[in-house]
Amino acid sequence: MTDVVRTGAELGAAVAAARGRVALVPTMGALHEGHASLMGAARAVVGDGGVVVASVFVNPLQFGAGEDLDRYPRTWDADLALAEREGVDVVFAPTVAEVYPGGDPQVTVDPGPLGAELEGAVRPGHFAGVLTVVAKLFGLARPDVAVFGEKDYQQLVLIRRMAADLCLRVEVRGAPTVREPDGLALSSRNRYLDDEQRRVAAVLSRALHAGQDAARTGPEAARAAAGAELADVPGAEVDYLELRDPDLAPLAPDATGPARLLVAARVGTTRLIDNTALSLGVGTG
Ligand SMILES: Nc1ncnc2c1ncn2[C@@H]1O[C@H](COP(=O)(O)OP(=O)(O)OP(=O)(O)O)[C@@H](O)[C@H]1O
Ligand SMILES: CC(C)(CO)[C@@H](O)C(=O)[O-]
Ligand code: BAL
């Protein structure tokens, strides 16, 4: 039985009554099997005696002017059915006024330098909005553990850093990206794509695979192989393709070992992001 709560007070009461550990899965709704995998991971961490809370909240603070806040998919009935199927104990689905009773908050979380790079360079203010709402969700749900998808890798790195830097006493876990059979990462925004755009969108994961395959030869080869896949694909406009270390710091040209390859592109008016781990250097790829 999944309880639906709409206010911070109701959520506080629900988690205060919990006997086991509390795991939180923040989402913006329009739930898909990627979200379901996070809920499954949350249950695996806290066990049957724990409490899994999923939030469904389209956070205006992380959308810039001209972005898709108004048309972001809202599929409440299907979201609740998926949460019930996954055995989520509590769904927190607040209104904007409940989360931001005084309008935009005066105090927000500064994501630091990484917040202005990659996604943050294309979407100024985005990560301040993300970290602020996640900090509020942590304050409301007081989770022991919170689970986020690696699909939004920069977000995951920044939330981990926020939890550590601000001593939030929550364990931040990443979960692997769930993909369509052709490699496209599941994403709520995929539903904006028409058939032709959906076909084009598979180039992102093809590029990441090409980068992985070339990684044994070194960073430049990995980046070039991914770039070659993305070059001249009609209908796909690349925002960035970057190879970084696993914490998203820049890599030395001769770096070896673990790294992260990240891509963002616009297919029509839809922005898609994806990333993969890879291992650089001869004998490690
Ligand atoms: N394919 C996926 N596999 C695993 N986790 C995912 C996947 N897609 C999203 N998530 C995770 O689900 C959580 C909620 O994300 P969100 O509700 O924004 O969904 P989304 O599909 O990423 O939507 P959007 O299209 O807005 O990017 C985040 O932690 C995100 O990383
Ligand atoms: C973490 C999050 C739920 C905060 O609004 C959002 O950025 C998302 O869905 O990834
Ligand atoms: N999936 C990350 C939330 C966003 O794009 O706003």
From TrEMBL:
Keyword Ribosomal protein attributed: no
Known catalytic reactions: (R)-pantoate + beta-alanine + ATP = (R)-pantothenate + AMP + diphosphate + H(+)
Main location as per UniProt: cytoplasm
Cell compartments where the protein resides: Cytoplasm
Active site per UniProt: 35
Residues involved in (R)-pantoate binding: 62, 155
Pathway given in the UniProt record: Cofactor biosynthesis; (R)-pantothenate biosynthesis; (R)-pantothenate from (R)-pantoate and beta-alanine: step 1/1
Annotated binding of ATP, by residue: 28-35, 149-152, 178, 186-189
Gene3D superfamilies reported for this sequence: HUPs, Pantoate-beta-alanine ligase, C-terminal domain
Keywords: ATP-binding, Cytoplasm, Ligase, Nucleotide-binding, Pantothenate biosynthesis
Record flagged with keyword tRNA-binding: no
GO molecular function (one): ligase activity
Catalytic EC class: ligase
EC number: 6.3.2.1
List of residues binding beta-alanine: 62
NCBIfam families on file: panC (TIGR00018)
Subunit record text: Homodimer.
HAMAP family: PanC (MF_00158)
Family in the record: Belongs to the pantothenate synthetase family.
Record function comment: Catalyzes the condensation of pantoate with beta-alanine in an ATP-dependent reaction via a pantoyl-adenylate intermediate.
The protein's name in its UniProt record: Pantothenate synthetase
Organism: Nocardioides marinquilinus
Lineage, opening ranks: Bacteria, Bacillati, Actinomycetota, Actinomycetes, Propionibacteriales
Gene that encodes it: panC
